[in-house]
């Protein structure tokens, strides 16, 4: 299999058969392309499983939540295979899969939501409240999909970046199998 030649500014996302290769950051452009390709797959065979091979440093929380919600909405069974690095919002995306796997040497990284807020004090307060709400949403997804308590998730993420490998991801419920 050969990856299509990537042009400057184009996402590293492509499709082969029922597989979508997502090797890029999560942003408006990459998510739109992934959703377009996934919708083509679903239109061709609504009940046949689709898979996403995921390697991402993460990215935008809003775009990641858009991606997550759409993946959970799909009518077909969804297999997500993490490889390389699955970080930040990538961890949320892998949790969208009906079947969730990682390769043996995959590294995952989860952390608190970050914000680059600046401006008037009133706007900073508004942005802070929104960031806290987004954090609640993401922590809730992790707790729900891994079976861990919300309190345990929140406590862990307050400590800073948390890197872990395939074995720990399996033990903690992020994935169902190491391949």
In helices, the fraction of residues equals: 40-55%
Largest sheet: 8 strands, mixed
Strand residues, percent: 15-25%
Integer-rounded radius of gyration: 17 Å
Order of helices and strands: EEHEHEHEEHHEHE
Instruction: Classify the oligomer.
Output: single chain
- Examine the secondary-structure arrangement and name the CATH architecture: Alpha-Beta Complex
Low-confidence stretches: 1-5
CATH superfamily label: 2-enoyl-CoA Hydratase, Chain A, domain 1
Q: Please state the overall shape, judged from the principal axes of the Cα atoms.
A: globular
Short description:
This protein is an alpha/beta fold. It has helices at residues 28-44, 61-73, 89-94, 121-146, 150-157, 166-171, and strands at residues 13-16, 19-22, 50-56, 78-87, 99-102, 107-110, 162-165, 177-178. The longest helix is centred in the last third of the chain and has 26 residues, at 121-146.
Set down the secondary structure blueprint.
Layout: E1 13-16, E2 19-22, H1 28-44, E3 50-56, H2 61-73, E4 78-87, H3 89-94, E5 99-102, E6 107-110, H4 121-146, H5 150-157, E7 162-165, H6 166-171, E8 177-178
Parallel strand pairs: 2-3, 3-4, 4-5, 4-6, 5-8
Antiparallel strand pairs: 1-2, 6-7
Helix pairs in contact: 1-2, 4-5
Any overview of this molecule?
The model is unreliable at 1-5 (pLDDT under 50). 30% of the residues are buried. 42% of the residues lie in helices and 22% in strands. The protein is built from six helices and eight strands, in the order E-E-H-E-H-E-H-E-E-H-H-E-H-E. The radius of gyration is 17 Å and the shape is globular. Helix 1 (28-44) runs parallel beside helix 2. It has one domain: 2-enoyl-CoA Hydratase, Chain A, domain 1. The two termini are 20 Å apart. Strand 4, helix 3 and strand 5 (99-102) form a beta-alpha-beta unit. By secondary structure, it is an alpha/beta fold. The longest helix is centred in the C-terminal third of the chain and has 26 residues, at 121-146. Strands 1, 2, 3, 4, 5, 6, 7 and 8 form an eight-stranded mixed sheet that branches. It has helices at residues 28-44, 61-73, 89-94, 121-146, 150-157, 166-171; strands spanning 13-16, 19-22, 50-56, 78-87, 99-102, 107-110, 162-165, 177-178.
């Amino acid at each position: 299999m050969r990856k299509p030649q990537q042009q400057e500014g184009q996402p590293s996302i492509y499709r082969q058969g029922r597989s979508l290769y997502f090797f890029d950051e999560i942003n408006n452009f990459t998510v739109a392309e992934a959703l377009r390709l996934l919708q083509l797959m679903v239109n061709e065979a609504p009940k046949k499983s689709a898979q996403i091979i995921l390697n991402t440093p993460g990215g935008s929380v809003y775009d990641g939540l858009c991606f997550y919600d759409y993946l959970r909405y799909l009518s077909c069974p969804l297999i997500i295979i993490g490889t390389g690095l699955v970080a930040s919002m990538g961890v949320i995306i892998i949790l969208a899969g009906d079947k969730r796997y990682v390769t043996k040497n995959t590294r995952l990284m989860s952390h608190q939501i970050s914000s680059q807020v600046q401006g008037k004090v009133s706007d900073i307060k508004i942005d802070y409240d929104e960031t806290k709400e987004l954090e609640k949403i993401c922590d809730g997804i992790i707790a729900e999909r891994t079976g861990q308590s919300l309190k345990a998730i929140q406590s862990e993420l307050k400590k800073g970046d948390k890197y872990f490998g395939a074995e720990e991801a399996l033990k903690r419920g992020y994935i169902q199998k190491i391949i």
